[in-house]
Each structure stands twice: as C-alpha cells, then as structure tokens.
Specification:
This protein is of the alpha+beta class and 76 residues long. It has one domain. It contains two helices and six strands. The strands form two sheets. Strands 1, 2, 5 and 6 form a four-stranded antiparallel β-sheet that branches. A two-stranded antiparallel sheet has the order 3-4. The longest helix is centred in the C-terminal third of the chain and has 11 residues.
C-alpha cells in the first residue's frame, strides 16, 4: 500500500447515489466540530476515517468506495 502524501493524489470516501453518480461522503469530524468531506492527500489518514464513512453508507444504504484522484491538470 502506497503512503503517498505529495498532494499529486487525493483519496476520498464516496457513496453511490440512487441515480448512479458517486458523491463525496461528509461527516462531522471529532475534535474539529465541522462537517467536511472525507478527502485527504494522506492515505493512512483517510483510512482512519473509514468508520465514519461506513456508518454513513450503512445509514443511507448506499455502496461505499475509497477513490484515488490523481493530478491531471493544474488550473492556476
């Protein structure tokens, strides 16, 4: 397993919506107190948030996946 933290890749928990589209899972992060998408450049950190992602998926009945997004274009 790659422990990439360069910023050229982002990892995100996603659920599949009823229309087939994949969306980001968001959760209230303990210690921060804010609702935020479960996305980060550190694979180990995002894996530690799996419990929050799984809880969301179980409550909504939506399929869950962990996605990796790679840098393909710099806009600015």
């Amino acid at each position: 397993m790659n422990h990439e933290t360069s910023g050229d890749a982002l990892y995100a928990w996603q659920v599949q919506e009823p229309d087939g589209q994949w969306s980001m899972v968001g959760a209230l992060i303990p210690g921060i107190g804010e609702h935020t998408p479960l996305i980060h450049r550190d694979l180990l950190l995002i894996r530690r948030l799996e419990g929050l992602a799984r809880k969301h998926a179980e409550q909504t009945g939506q399929p869950l996946r962990l996605a990796r997004f790679a840098l393909t274009e710099v806009l600015e």
